[in-house]
User: What shape does this take?
Amino acid sequence: MSGRGTPALDAVRAAGVPHAVHEYETPASGRDRERRPRFGADAAAALGVDPARVFKTLVAEVDGRLVAAVVPVSGELDLKALAAAVGGRRAALADPAAAERATGSVVGGISPLGGRRRLPTILDASAFGHATIFVSGGRRGLQVELAAADLVRLVDGVEAPIARG
Assistant: This one.
């Protein structure tokens, strides 16, 4: 590891949670503009990890409030399930600029940990089928590996089936 800290890494270290930090080279920034970025899939491939263990953090708006949804990169966020998990009626992905302002990280590097604002966080139930999972460490090219139960505790989050596919 290069030793560069992020608020996400600082939060994990301060809590004394067992974890591992994984850095990897991100694909060239001159990626095809027509291709939708697949940061999580790129992370799984670069680290040689099953994509079901690598989780992306998506910021959604549920009835006007921002919520962090943490789902495997091998699946998609089920917006209806997310709304139900937080007692809401309607959910939609947040505007990327709003997500970046709330978290302090850029899209592709948003972490459920150490955000600028503490967002209600829902972790997909599938995370608990693995000894450890990977989440962004707060910047592109940086993943933190930890137990799902530790992640839920650190973010004061909840577990719910919010992914499909």
Notes: Residues 29-35 have pLDDT under 50 and may be disordered. The radius of gyration is 15 Å.
